[in-house]
Amino acid sequence: MPLKKNIKKVLLIGSGPIQIGQAAEFDFSGSQACRSLREEGIEVVLVNSNPATIQTDPEMADIIYVEPLKASVIAKIIEKEKPDGILSGMGGQTGLNLTAELAEMGALKDVEILGTPLDAIYKGEDREQFKNLMTEIGEPIPRSMILESMSQIDEALEKVGLPAIIRPAYTLGGAGGGVAHNVEELRRIIELGLQRSRIHQVLVEESVIGWKEIEFEVMRDSADTCIIICGMENVDPMGIHTGESVVVAPILTLRDDEFQKLRTAAIKIIRALGVQGGCNIQMAYKDGDYRIIEVNPRVSRSSALASKATGYPIARVSAKIAVGLRLDEIRNTVTGCTPASFEPAIDYVVVKVPRWPFDKFKNADRTLTTAMKSTGEVMSIGRTLEEAFMKARRSLDTDVTVHTSKKEIAMLLQNPTDERFGCLFDAFRQGFSVDAVKDMTYIDGFFLQKIANIVEIEKSLQNNPTDDDIKRAKHFGFSNEEISEFTGRSTDDIEKLVGMPVYKIVDTCAAEFPASTPYFYSTSDEECEIVRDGKEKVLIIGSGPIRIGQGIEFDYCTVHAVMALREQGIEVHIVNNNPETVSTDFDTSDRLFFEPMKLEDIMNILRKDDYSGIMVQFGGQNSVNLALPIEREIAKYGLKTKILGTSPDSMDIAEDRDRFSQILEKLNIRSPANGSAYSEAEAFEIARKIGYPLLVRPSYVLGGRAMELVHDDIELQNYIKEAVRVSRQHPVLLDSFLQNAIELDVDAVCDGEDILIGGIMEHIEEAGVHSGDSACVIPTQSLSDEVVATVRDYTRKIAL
Questions:
Q1: Cα-to-chain-centroid distance, residue 57
Q2: Residues 376, 444: one domain?
Q3: Which of 180, 359, 484, 656 gets the most CB atoms within 10 Å of its CB?
Q4: Are residue 573 and residue 634 in the same domain, yes or no?
Q5: Can you tell me the distance from the alpha carbon of 191 to that of 149, in angstroms, rounded to the nearest whole number?
């Protein structure tokens, strides 16, 4: 079918600011959809309120409105722009909800709803309509009841019983929902759910906690052709939101007949909904029985994972289907030679592990439930499940508490928190059996055995390991540094024994066809699929999982760096492990590595090809922290690679609070009285000299982590141990806190000679509120011309 001839201009609704349950995956899908539509000659009008995304860049759409995502505002934009169609499925729950509101207020009377029809939005999101549809097509759902007021609770108790799962309609990431084990919890969660729901409706549902959770990413076109993009299996059982669960692809614990039963049901559901494009379907499965849990008639975080896991560009294909193309008419741009109607095939294992913000919010409730709390996720790829598990753990880049008390381990396994994945390893280290852990967690024994295998390898490495033990550990994903820690042997000796890793291609077709835009993962094998070609190459280190203080603004910077280098004819490669981002899209860079961003993994990539340079300044704090170690390793191996941009020594001056203070003193730039401390005793001595209140700040940390205002000796004593631990080998700086002070942010670019100041932002809040948490204005409002001139002068001096 050709393109819909009446569709010349399309309005695309973005997802707005990052929030729990709605992160960079919609920046990725929306950006991919914009490019896809423009490839077909369609004018794209984008509405989004998030300035940190690549999606709101001028090059991404023809017309961009950075406006509040409110139905009344978008209705005025529709009236002005007069689009022929609206694409709602790329903006997450926000996009769907706004499309429904716009239709209900009559703003879409001359605008065609593309991709996800209005009827599908209602049937997928309205719990009662969804229940009726599943009953109509003969698909099993949990016993349930719809509630629209608190007065129906007694009836729900009688009909559904306890425990029960509460799911509010039209909410994001399970917000307002949860699991009720008693009447008091039921009342509390229902009351919250009714408040959160756009239509004041909740579903009280029979609990299937402990069943397996299975997801299918399905695609359908206007000719009713349906394909399964990816089947995914949650390691954690039902009762934990899929965004909070460790997820594996492909599905590993179902027999083929069980898989085919669920696959058939998924296709039946997308046909019944009438969705044209991508759709996410979640199911519970146990002992041959299954229930349909939820349908997202839009792209989701799982869609981003499925897209990166298989290499299949879900958002790109969905956008083209929305404007009339069939799957067999759309080319798979990864292979360059197969149509999009080919179901992807993978010959590796993918693991996703969530990243939680509890390192910043230590007093928050860490319990994992049906409502999301994670801010991001990492994805790893390996030839074995053990290898993928190990690479995912390295990618998380977070402190892990090791538990040795059997009582404590049992409690964490039975009451899941963000520590549960790591605690599974602790359980087997302390002698728990697979069956015992299975009884406490309901996690399938297959996954537990794989984790037990990893722990067995750890034990073999600690007990006079043979060369074969070390090679086996490498095959199962242990890094040389991890093997060194267990064995006491040097990493150089280990590399001589096991060799360097090789790199394999992710190509959507299990190497059945050649790939024109491939990306790579490392493994321990003999044949490497990277071919050296002598071209000038630059490697950019990405920012990893989204976390508090490090969001998609760094992905934005990475993508712009790629675009700038490509304009100069330079081949650009990226290493990142975040499946939600634009930088890990299949065609953003010339080559993509889905890898942990540890020093060893970065150096393996640099040594495998000829890189003229590496850039670390676009990946946020984590990549900046690698600058000096990478410089040392480059010298060690005699590589020609240069760290481009700001030198590692200059980065160290900016990050090391002690060195930075010395530079300010040399430049005669005033700064608060300060001092550096490596211990508690030194900290108290400095505090006595300077006086309270003090701002205590460690070096090389992200988003103000471990940065606090202390007012007396007791607060300092409670704090300093944490600060010293966070800063590791770097000093902690204690500053005299400036009260009633105005805080400014200055952004500038320097080429070593000239300086361009991009903007001076004035904070609304006084100094003491982190710049990431403060409202700000451009240009400054309360500063005199003399003060602004001084700020410019200081900026030039510091930059040069």
A1: 21
A2: yes
A3: 180
A4: yes
A5: 8
Look at residue 182 and tell me if it is in a domain: yes
What pLDDT does 559 receive?
92
Residues 333-380 have pLDDT tens digits of: 777 778 899 998 889 999 999 998 887 777 888 988 877 888 889 999
The structural domain count of the chain equals 7
Backbone angles phi, psi at 673, to 5 degrees: -55, 135
How far is C-alpha 548 from the chain's CA centre?
11
295, 273 contact by CB (below 8 A) = yes
> Would you say residue 513 lies in a domain?
no
Condensed to tens digits (0 to 9), the pLDDT of residues 399-439 reads 788 999 999 999 999 999 999 999 999 999 999 999 999 99
CB 116 within 8 A of CB 86: no
Pair (309, 360) in one structural domain:
no
Where b means 16+ CB within 10 Å and e means fewer, 501-529 reads bbbbbbbbbeeebebebbbbbbbbeeebe
* Domain boundaries, position 553: 525-651
Asked if residues 294 and 16 have their Cβ atoms less than 8 Å apart, the reply is: no
The rounded radius of gyration (Å) of the Cα atoms in the chain is: 27
In this structure, are 421 and 553 located in the same domain? no
253 and 383 belong to one structural domain: no
Same-domain status, 780 and 714: no
645-656 pLDDT per residue, tens: 999 999 888 877
CA separation for the pair 631, 484 (Å, rounded): 22
- What phi, psi does 514 have (nearest 5°)? -70, 155
Is there a domain that residue 76 lies in?
yes
Whether residue 218 sits in one domain with residue 356: no
Q: Which of 521, 529, 541, 525 is nearest to 641 (CA)?
A: 541
Pairing status of strand 502-506 against strand 642-643? unpaired
Tally the C-alpha atoms within 13 A of residue 728's C-alpha that lie toward its C-beta. 4
Helices (H), 343-479: 385-396, 406-414, 420-429, 434-441, 445-462, 467-475
What is the edge-to-edge ordering of all strands in the sheet holding 742-750? 742-750, 755-766, 776-777
Listed residue (471, 591, 575, 577) closest to 524, CA to CA: 471
